[in-house]
From TrEMBL:
Protein name as annotated: Twin-arginine translocation signal domain-containing protein
Signal peptide: 1-29
Pfam families named among the record's database cross-references: AP_endonuc_2
Classification via InterPro entries: IolE/XylAMocC-like, TAT_signal, TAT_signal_bac_arc, Xyl_isomerase-like_sf, Xyl_isomerase-like_TIM-brl
Keyword Signal: yes
PROSITE patterns, A to Z: TAT
Keywords: Signal
Organism the protein comes from: Zobellia amurskyensis
Amino acid sequence: MIHTNRRNFLKKSGLAAAGTLLIPSMSFAVAPNEKYGVQLYSFRDEMAKDAKGTLEQIASIDIKKIESARSKEGLYYGLSPKEMKETCDSLGMELCSGHVALDKDFENTMRQAVESGQEYIICSSLPSKGQNIANYKKVAEAFNKAGESCKKLGLKFGYHNHEYEFESDKGEVLYDVLMDNTDPDLVHMELDLGWVVVAEKDPLHYFKKYPKRFPLWHLKDMNMHEKVSTEFGKGGLDIAMMMKHKSDSGVKHIFIEQEEYASTPMESMKHNMNFLKTL
């Protein structure tokens, strides 16, 4: 049975018919050798207490890729960039990306990213406030410059959306303004699929409008009433449909993120990994 929230979303987005057509082919939506990652904010408290021990637990449930997140302990939860890389390597995981701020310390952020061996650094929130076209064009210019700086160091710069970027100003969706004014060779988008559907937008529309522009995903199911994350299959994101169309988006790294949990972060992540394996 389609979850009520998801059914409402599908009706709004025009995907209801497509969803019914997908059902017979769901088992082919996910490649069996897909290597999934996790955004470490999902384990933020555990990482703050015991970074290496938590990474060991994450590796034990077959997660192969890591995206770090800036915290009060630093970019790598108290570990040095080299320690973070070595720990992931020893556990058979790849440190691919990290959430950072585009701020006065950005030079040091890039330096640490190079030392860690990661490929991407992702700005996790807008560097200047203003829900209007003028600010988003200003942000796009800053992102292009940051992308140039990263490219010189062999890094890739990107941006991670929330819900608010899909608000409109003067009839234009602000996220589209950001997309239209950033250089695809310099700014690599990480699409948080959960926030897209909460904003009542269709991720498939963005895959089509901006093909191959989303090398990173946050795969996040959402409770559509409370606007909080939930375990896979319990919310409003049609995960099988997303997987079927992932090549359209150009995704290379899929990071699972969950910020609220039915019990514990590890139990939720085990559920999510099992869900993906049984699609």
